[in-house]
């Protein structure tokens, strides 16, 4: 049989894994710092991931620049973010985010990003959840993509090479637990690539596509989490996942908070109004609509909307596993006022919201957990490994304030890029890289050699998505989580026992399955351990918030191939300095 060998060696100072907003900012900052940097992207540049495809009525980037209200300052942004996750997130990371994002906004303006402005030239700023003052900045309704395109132009100007359709699947370390390289497969050429590098930045997004329905693109299955965890980096806050309603046909369209102000009617496949069916009599259905935001939370009466959807997915689903959504007669003016972008996007997909009923289900949007970073520079417990964006953990807890996601990508993307460049320029090469690479290749080839079974990889991947969707969505309990864990463990056992047909043509799919299972198990174990309900984590067998025992993070580590669960509480720190906006 044929075996994998190294087809190409690329020697660089900084390898950025990923192609979204955080990865792009990291690559640009590393290049600006003088490093020889290269990007490896699992799919198409500017056509995959969350940043390139993100959409919401409220999508924007948060920065306390005080343009809408001069009382807003980074200290307020800091406190607002901590209030959403106190005890679960690192205050030092939160302060870095709040104090530095005004500078990153100025960077974007300097490279030509044209934020929406009011007549006096100040930036338009909107309110978001958990914000004391309006602080989200936007660009023509598609903020994320505009940020990415602006960064891409600068990356091109710096002649940063971009390897598309290239899956980095293995990080190589030396005997001192220092990064010395990374292995990747180019899916177009089937080449095995060795990146010889002392610095790797993992900014490859989240893992929402371990669920049946999710935003972004299908390549987001947790590769970054699994690779980091394999090296001993803890995965923290993994039970907190942002999930909420979205139109599912012909493609996913999130239905954010403003949509529900129009009070659309949700019915099951029998034609029953699901809110009238499931909302208790003592709860006003108007309160459910009025409090509904994206994502799901147990904190308000809006809880009933998401849980009602899930109950109907399991009993009276529409053909594609959702519920029917129709706009109320006479709601035209409020639809045009509150959800014009959503109406337009749905129309572009062939749905007239005033005439058509369309299918709605629960959709995974963002991982609030991630691989633990240990400093504002995105460092980890592995020398030379830096992590940014949604792959990073420690700055998001049970809730994530609106606008912070794009802000995190710019702040920590910049910091990791600069730090990785500095690290690489003072680090000597690993003389034993060849031996360590050979060992990794031997393991890969042995896996292929021993995998001659008849089970189908595609079916296994779909079964993970179905299992996570059924058992680890918004309604969780011990029985559901045990069912999910049993299935994941069985798939892991089958994969290790060679029961799948794995060859050089489908090895990328096999690697994805392996990484999906690592990520799924981390989520399930974290959700099983947290015996309370809080924010987006709802345990119907433990329906109450338990502040006495559970204001702390859960994290999982790998030891001898087994996952271990631990807890950590973050102590608040006092902000001693004010960071004034330069805008």
Topology of helices and strands:
Layout lengths: L7 E4 L2 E4 L3 H12 L4 E4 L20 E2 L11 H12 L5 H20 L14 E2 L9 E2 L5 H15 L4 E2 L2 E8 L5 E8 L4 E6 L2 E4 L20 H8 L4 E2 L4 E7 L5 E2 L10 E3 L6 H5 L6 H7 L11 H11 L9 E4 L5 H7 L1 H9 L9 E10 L2 E3 L12 E3 L4 E2 L10 H21 L8 H17 L7 H15 L6 H19 L10 H23 L17 H4 L2 E7 L2 E7 L15
Parallel strand pairs: 1-10, 2-3, 2-11, 3-7, 11-19, 18-20
Antiparallel strand pairs: 4-6, 5-6, 8-9, 9-10, 12-18, 12-21, 13-14, 13-17, 15-16, 16-17, 21-22
Helix pairs in contact: 1-4, 1-11, 2-3, 3-11, 5-15, 13-14, 13-15, 14-15
Notes on the structure:
The structure is a single chain. This protein is an alpha/beta fold and 583 residues long. It folds into 3 domains: 11-240 and 366-424, FAD/NAD(P)-binding domain, CATH 3.50.50.60; 243-364, Flavocytochrome C3, Chain A, domain 1, CATH 3.90.700; 433-568, Fumarate reductase/succinate dehydrogenase flavoprotein-like, C-terminal domain (Methane Monooxygenase Hydroxylase, Chain G, domain 1), CATH 1.20.58. It has 16 helices and 22 strands. The chain has helices at 21-32, 74-85, 91-110, 143-157, 223-230, 274-278, 285-291, 303-313, 332-338, 340-348, 404-424, 433-449, 457-471, 478-496, 507-529, 547-550, and strands at 8-11, 14-17, 37-40, 61-62, 125-126, 136-137, 162-163, 166-173, 179-186, 191-196, 199-202, 235-236, 241-247, 253-254, 265-267, 323-326, 358-367, 370-372, 385-387, 392-393, 553-559, 562-568. Strands 7-3-2-11-19 form a 5-stranded parallel beta sheet, covered by helices on one side. Strands 20-18-12-21-22 form a 5-stranded mixed beta sheet, with helices on one face. It has a 5-stranded antiparallel beta sheet with strand order 14-13-17-16-15. Strand 13 (241-247) and strand 14 form a beta hairpin. Helix 2 (74-85) packs across helix 3. The relative contact order is 0.18. This is Succinate dehydrogenase. Residues 463-569 form the Fumarate reductase/succinate dehydrogenase flavoprotein-like C-terminal domain.
């Amino acid at each position: 049989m044929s075996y994998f060998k190294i087809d190409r060696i690329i020697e660089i100072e900084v390898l950025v894994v990923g192609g979204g907003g955080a990865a792009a900012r990291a690559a640009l900052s590393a290049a600006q710092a003088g490093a020889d940097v290269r990007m490896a992207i699992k799919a198409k540049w500017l056509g995959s991931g969350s940043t390139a495809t993100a959409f919401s009525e409220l999508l924007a980037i948060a920065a306390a620049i005080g343009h809408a209200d001069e009382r807003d300052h980074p200290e307020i942004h800091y406190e607002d973010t901590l209030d959403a996750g106190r005890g679960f997130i690192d205050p030092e990371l939160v302060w870095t985010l709040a104090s530095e994002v005004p500078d990153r906004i100025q960077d974007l303006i300097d490279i030509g990003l044209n934020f929406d402005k009011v007549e006096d030239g100040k930036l338009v700023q909107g309110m978001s959840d958990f914000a004391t003052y309006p602080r989200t900045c936007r660009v023509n309704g598609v903020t994320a993509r505009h940020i990415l395109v602006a960064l891409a132009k600068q990356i091109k100007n710096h002649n940063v090479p971009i390897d598309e359709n290239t899956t980095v699947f293995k990080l190589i370390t030396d005997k001192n637990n220092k990064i010395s390289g990374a292995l990747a497969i180019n899916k177009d050429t089937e080449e095995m690539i060795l990146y010889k590098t002392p610095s790797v930045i993992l900014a490859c997004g989240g893992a929402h596509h371990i669920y049946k329905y999710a935003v972004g693109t299908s390549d987001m299955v947790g590769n970054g989490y699994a690779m980091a965890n394999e090296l001993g980096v803890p995965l923290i806050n993994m039970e907190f996942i942002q999930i909420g309603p979205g139109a599912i046909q012909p493609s996913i369209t999130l239905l954010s908070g403003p949509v529900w102000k129009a009070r659309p009617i949700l019915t099951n496949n029998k034609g029953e109004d699901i809110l009238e069916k499931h909302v208790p009599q003592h709860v006003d259905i108007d309160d459910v609509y009025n409090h509904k935001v994206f994502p799901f939370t147990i904190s308000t009466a809006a809880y009933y909307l998401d849980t009602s959807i899930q109950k109907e997915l399991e009993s009276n689903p529409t053909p594609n596993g959702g519920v029917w959504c129709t706009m109320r007669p006479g709601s035209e003016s409020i639809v045009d006022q509150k959800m014009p972008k959503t109406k337009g996007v749905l129309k572009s997909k062939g749905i007239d919201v005033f005439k058509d009923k369309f299918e709605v289900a629960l959709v995974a949007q963002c991982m609030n957990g991630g691989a633990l970073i240990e400093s504002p520079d995105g460092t980890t417990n592995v020398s030379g490994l830096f992590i940014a964006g949604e792959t990073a953990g420690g700055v998001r807890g049970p809730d994530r304030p609106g606008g912070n996601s794009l802000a995190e990508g710019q702040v920590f993307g910049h910091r990791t890029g600069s730090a990785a460049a500095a690290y690489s320029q003072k680090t000597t090469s690993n003389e034993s890289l060849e031996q360590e690479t050979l060992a990794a290749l031997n393991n890969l080839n042995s896996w292929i050699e021993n995998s001659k079974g008849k089970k189908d990889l595609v079916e296994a991947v779909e079964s993970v998505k179905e299992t996570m969707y059924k058992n680890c969505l918004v309604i969780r309990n011990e029985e559901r989580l045990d069912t999910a864990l049993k299935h994941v463990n069985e798939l892991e056992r089958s994969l290790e026992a060679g029961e799948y047909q794995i060859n050089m043509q489908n090895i990328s799919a096999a690697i994805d399955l392996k990484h999906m299972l690592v990520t799924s198990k981390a989520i399930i174990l974290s959700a099983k351990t947290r015996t309370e309900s809080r924010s987006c984590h709802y345990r119907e067998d433990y329906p109450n918030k338990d502040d006495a025992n559970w204001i702390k993070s859960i994290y999982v580590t790998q030891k001898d191939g087994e996952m271990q669960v631990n807890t950590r509480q973050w102590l608040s720190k006092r902000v001693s300095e004010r960071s004034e906006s330069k805008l």
